TrEMBL record:
MF-aspect GO terms: exonuclease activity
Gene: sbcD
Keywords recorded for this protein, A-Z: DNA recombination, DNA replication, Endonuclease, Exonuclease, Hydrolase, Nuclease
Protein's UniProt name: Nuclease SbcCD subunit D
Superkingdom, taxonomy of origin: Bacteria
Length: 388
């Protein structure tokens, strides 16, 4: 059986205020075309279909279009809810939608109830484990401790129990939305830590022929049988080195896995640049990044004037600007900001603050402005005191 494994669509999400809906629509078209051209037997979507519990209307319309296109193609789809989705909203109409070959698994109680799809070698049982928030599902699974490992282990116990009652040779695919030990996170995933622990060992999924994971946005191989597809589009600059893709998985008659990584269309490459402003503007080697989405960290000791506009002249798709100024020779590298303020009066603290955030102290006209401001505040305090 041939599977197309994807996850973390995050429909409705933007990228640093850039609307990604067109890019998401392009991905959906790519997904459907790939399923058709590569003769896919089933599509699996491992959670975070939407970016938030109540998605914008345009995102709902795109989701609806995706379901119709997959149904028209005749390719069964198995989909679970992730930690960004509202499981109840995503699961509305699941029974009716299932008749069209789109199988939604959003209820933790149904973790042990598979969707069974046949191929030439027998049955493949697809078990959908939606995102399991430990505090909300611990009673359902009868676990004493509300932790990710405990609830996922209990859900997998149900999977293994159901699988044991099926005909010999039945192969299994598990969809799960979780942080599995060995995976590398990025800045764009929502934290799911509970009790200081968010990761679960991959051994929790023992017994499954293939585990299609969602949650982490980088495509990753935990083991031959346990993989993250990653998000099809970037949602933070921490993903600048990601190769956005899906997994094309072939399960043979004995459940052995063969995997091929298929690239997804991305509107623009991402790049992180670092250096002094003039160097970044003049460096000819950076010409290749002029059409990329750019995050810049400026290291100028003194913050330059109007840096964003100047950067945008060369890199028109600059979306993020950070500052990490070089320290001057007279700074104490290990001194905290609070320590540097000790013994200073209000005016000196204000000057020190300007130096701290800009990289250089105020000039004489700025000092005069600060003095005038403090004098006005003190005068106002005196007037209020007299009025009492």
């Amino acid at each position: 059986m041939r599977l197309l494994h994807t996850s973390d669509w995050h429909l409705g999400r933007s990228f640093h205020r850039v609307n990604m809906l067109d890019a998401q629509a392009t991905f959906i078209a790519h997904l459907v075309a790939t399923a058709r051209e590569r003769s896919v037997d089933a599509v699996v979507v491992s959670g975070d279909v939407y970016d938030r519990a109540v998605p914008p209307l345009a995102a709902v319309e795109l989701y609806d279009d995706a379901l119709h296109r997959l149904a028209e193609l005749g390719v069964p789809t198995v989909m679970i809810s992730g930690n960004h989705d509202s499981a109840r909203r995503l699961g509305v109409g699941a029974g009716l939608i299932g008749r069209a070959g789109i199988h939604l698994r959003t209820e933790p109680a149904r973790s042990g109830e598979p969707i069974v799809l046949p191929d030439a070698h027998g049955d493949v049982a697809f078990y959908g484990l939606p995102y399991l928030e430990p505090a909300l599902v611990k009673d359902e699974f009868g676990v004493a401790k509300a932790g990710h490992e405990q609830v996922l282990a209990a859900a997998m116990d149900r999977v293994r129990a159901d699988l044991a009652g099926r005909p010999a040779g039945t192969r299994s695919v598990v969809l799960a939305h979780a942080f599995v030990t060995g995976g590398a996170p990025s800045d764009s995933e929502r934290d799911i830590t509970v009790g200081g622990v968010s990761a679960v060992p991959s051994g929790v999924f023992d017994g499954a022929d293939y585990v299609a994971l969602g949650h982490l946005h980088g495509s990753q191989v935990i083991s031959d049988r346990v993989r993250y597809s990653g998000s099809p589009l970037p949602y933070s600059f921490s993903e600048a080195d990601h190769r956005k893709s899906m997994w094309l998985i072939d399960l043979d008659a004995g459940g052995a896995v063969t995997a091929e990584r298929l690239d997804c269309p991305v509107p623009r490459p991402l790049v992180r640049l670092r250096g002094d402003l003039e160097d970044l503007l003049d460096d000819p080697d950076l010409a290749r990044h002029e059409e990329s989405w750019v995050e810049v960290t400026l290291t100028d000791a003194i913050r330059p004037d109007d840096p964003m506009a100047r950067l945008a002249d060369r890199f028109p798709h600059t979306l993020s600007l950070l500052f990490d100024p070089r320290r001057t020779d007279d700074e104490e590298p290990d001194a905290s900001y609070a320590e540097r303020l000790k013994g200073r009066d209000d005016h000196e603290i204000a000057e020190d603050f300007v130096t701290h955030v800009r990289g250089a102290g105020p000039d004489e006209s700025e000092r005069a402005l600060l003095r005038a401001a403090f004098d006005a505040v003190r005068a106002d305090d005196v007037v209020r005191e007299v009025a009492r």
